[in-house]
Amino acid sequence: MKYISEFRRSELAQGLITQIHRQSKTPVRFMEFCGGHTVTIFRYGIRQLLPKTIEMVSGPGCPICVTANADLDKAIALAQIPGVIIATFGDMLKVPGSDSSLQEAKAGGADVRMVYSTMDALKIAEDNPDNAIVFLGIGFETTAPTIAVSILQAEEKDIKNYYVLSLHKLCPPVIKALLDSGEVKLHGLICPGHVSAIIGSQPWEFIARDYAVPCVVSGFEPLDILQSVDMLVNQVEKGRSQVEIAYRRGVCPEGNRQALKLMREVFEPRPALWRGMGGIPGSGLKLRKKYQRFDAEFAFDIRPSPTREPAGCICGDILRGVKTPADCKLFGKTCTPENPVGPCMVSSEGSCSASYLYGGGFE
Amino acid sequence: MNDKILLAHGSGGKLAHELVEKGFVKALANPLLAKLDDSAVIDFSGRLAFTTDSYVVSPIFFPGGDIGKLAVCGTVNDLAMSGARPLYLSLAFIIEEGFLKSELNRVVNSIQKAAEEAGVGIITGDTKVVHRGSADKLFINTAGVGIIPEGINISGSNARAGDRVILSGTIGDHGITVISQREELSFSTNLKSDCAPLGGLVAEMLNASPNIHCLRDPTRGGLATSLNELAKQSRVSIRIEEQKIPVREEVLAACEMLGFDPLYVANEGKLVAIVPDEDADKVLKAMRKNRYGENAVIIGEVGAEKPGRVVMKTVLGASRIVDMLVGDLLPRIC
């Protein structure tokens, strides 16, 4: 079986679209939590194909977008410390912090390197014993286990110059915070596929049970999304609210036990700052005391510049699903992928970027 | 030390002469080059196309080609995209001190083979050697000239509403091949770069119809960027169908993994042609007879509304904008 083209087959998609149209009676608002889903929805024009009864809103599932300016400023401040090499996933480079970005810091002489995996960062540490290598731990439950592995390996190999700035975030707590705020009324949630591959579908159960919001865990191909919408519509029309998995090829209810074990060995939950949502209890990860020597916040005296938010940017509201990119006065004018003002325009998974690149005022 | 390039190889002195005469002139066997005067002197008349490009690809060897083949094909293709018959190239090396002579020979041989296939002569050149660290192994610049036949008028601003858009084959092969060879990205594919000289294909297309409006080779920035350039230059809109664009399964898979869109991935042996509707079938037929156009397809058409815009009908039947590439997908792929 081909795992890509098979999930983009037009005739199967047409069948699902027809079924959704036939089934959907009640006006509903569904949120796709994950930025990866947002990109698929825009890239394939899925919103245009759904009946008027279904409104899709994008959620806060873009790790770079939800990283608060205060945390970005820490990363930029770390980059300015002599002898420090910052290793990071590429998207982070362009994200503007309060005064600057990692890209600007790099142009000013800071050593900032783009890596594709945490193991590459570890290798930089081994190759540069006289420097301190700080990996920017940005991401959800998906990346946290790989970073845990890098720390365990650093310990095993006794690598003394490898550090992690842990800005990791956890998904279930932020969804809870969103639902508790009551700002956006949701009738269904498309749950993140990759995150669920790690944590399983069980951590979403409280949403269906306590908030009566139907949940479907979805993959990232257009057929996955259509199938998930179809399953949500089915739950709504039948008055059910359950957690269902449309992404069976990647997700099982209990998740990836090995990855979870590694994550729990190295990290423990802590409160985290989310852009647009402020502090959310238990929604971040920090290194356990046992691994504190790898913790950049513990090892360095980080002095970030005072935090400022970019004037006019509504990324925070967009991340909560309260507003859309089209509501933003800066969108497509002063804020473009070439000159981003807010992170949702920078990250390839950001809803502003997806909307600009694939939608761009197009009806 | 005989196996490495030294600073003296670029000094203009004895070692430099030896390298040029034994290494380059012999391999590239061209009487105009062999004269070794300060300039190559050539006779010709007609409309001249003239272009230049620098090549810094990393790694310098990759499946399906190397920096030498690329330096010939890239410049030859730029000439061909003006409808010109490519004739002569210049060839300039910037070599990092310590570069292996054996690798340089490999590159020169590959340049010779590519030039022979493209039917161009390399008639002037230059060699510089820079300190270790001042360049990465080997950079090449080539410039080329060609003659545009009578009655041919190809330009990015010639597209007209109603024209058809033809693509010569699968997209993304070169970019993904080179990226897959990078140390920092450990994945392997059986892909090969599509790097190829397209002068012959273009000549056959022009034979089939001298009325071709635009030609472009979608290199850096990929198909999406080329189409946007054409739409803007010609002040037209272009509408393409995702379903019709050929992409290899390996390229799709790599793009998924890396978060790329094949529409933005570089090609080195593909072209897009914008052709009047009535000539489209003739041109397509001619293309399919050529080995570099056997998978050619009509992927869309030109419209008059919303000038400058490229729109794609997705596989699901919805429409979306196809914008230019923003930023750099990955540096140094050509």
Largest interface: A-B, 33 and 21 residues
CATH architectural name of the largest domain in chain B: Alpha-Beta Complex
- Please, what is the average pLDDT of chain A? 93
Gyration radius over CA of chain B: 21 Å
The total count of helices of chain A amounts to: 17
In spatial order, strands of the major sheet of chain A run 2-1-7-8-9
CATH class group of the largest domain in chain B: Alpha Beta
DSSP E strands of chain B, number: 13
Using the coordinates above, name the CATH class of the largest domain in chain A.
Answer: Alpha Beta
Beta-strand share of residues of chain A: 15-25%
Secondary structure category of chain B: alpha+beta
Order of helices and strands of chain A: HEHHEHHEHEHEHEHEHHEHEHEEHHHH
What is the quaternary state of this protein? heterodimer
Return residue spans of chain A where pLDDT drops below 50 for at least 5 consecutive residues.
none
Q: What is the count of DSSP helices of chain B, taking H or I runs of 4+ residues?
A: 9
What would a concise description of this structure say?
The complex is a heterodimer of chains A (363) and B (334). With 363 residues, chain A is α/β, with parallel strands linked by helices.
Helix-strand blueprint:
The complex is a heterodimer of chains A (363) and B (334).
Chain A: H1 10-23, E1 28-34, H2 35-43, H3 46-49, E2 54-61, H4 63-66, H5 69-80, E3 84-88, H6 102-107, E4 111-114, H7 118-127, E5 132-137, H8 144-156, E6 162-166, H9 171-181, E7 188-191, H10 193-199, H11 205-210, E8 215-217, H12 222-237, E9 243-245, H13 257-266, E10 267-274, E11 278-287, H14 296-299, H15 315-319, H16 343-346, H17 351-359
Parallel strand pairs in A: 1-2, 1-7, 3-4, 3-5, 5-6, 7-8, 8-9
Antiparallel strand pairs in A: 10-11
Chain B: H1 14-28, H2 31-34, E1 47-55, E2 61-62, E3 65-66, H3 67-80, E4 85-96, H4 101-118, E5 121-130, E6 138-148, E7 164-167, H5 173-180, H6 199-208, E8 214-216, H7 222-234, E9 237-241, H8 249-258, E10 272-275, H9 277-289, E11 297-303, E12 310-313, E13 319-321
Parallel strand pairs in B: 4-5, 9-12
Antiparallel strand pairs in B: 1-6, 2-3, 4-6, 7-10, 7-11, 8-10, 9-11, 12-13
